[in-house]
Design goal:
By secondary structure, the chain is α/β, with parallel strands linked by helices. It has a single domain (2-176), classed as Rossmann fold (3-Layer(aba) Sandwich), CATH 3.40.50.850. The protein has 8 helices and 6 strands. Helix 2 runs parallel beside helix 8. The chain is globular.
Length: 177
Amino acid sequence: MVKALIIIDMIKGNTLNIYNPKEIISNQVKLIEEFNKHKLPIIVVTGKSNSEKNPVMLKLWGDEFADEPEKKELIQEVTKSKYSIKIEKSEYSAFFQTELEQYCKNNNIDEIYFTGVYSGVCVYFSAVDAAYRRIQPYLVTDASTTEKQEWHERNCERFKTVIGPLITTQKLIDSLK
């Protein structure tokens, strides 16, 4: 049984729109340190900068940060951390047309602990795709977020009901010891 940490879409522009960025980033840093201490995989996911734009997504979101490319960069706390692999995705799910599934198979990963933004979109859809691939997804509730606290709480309930268990940063760290 191999556990992996995944950090989704922690780019500069996204951290401007979430309700609790300092707490989320702090908890992600703690988890990165702990997973590194135990030599467990850490997967960082970000958007593909020069992928063909999906017309459906363009209607919903527009070309996010097109005029501000610096907002598409990973936050400093993630870039300066040691991680195992960086995955670039072009859609909500980190599994869709990426090497993530093969990476999980090659490393016998059967549990993924999801963190990042947005808990009801990219984090959620990536976790659903993990379950489809028979990898147990967990949502680290205090290391993932969205724009509003009440939305995140609703996303956590939906995750627990439909996909898998919820866990906090401290409980995850305790379980690794």
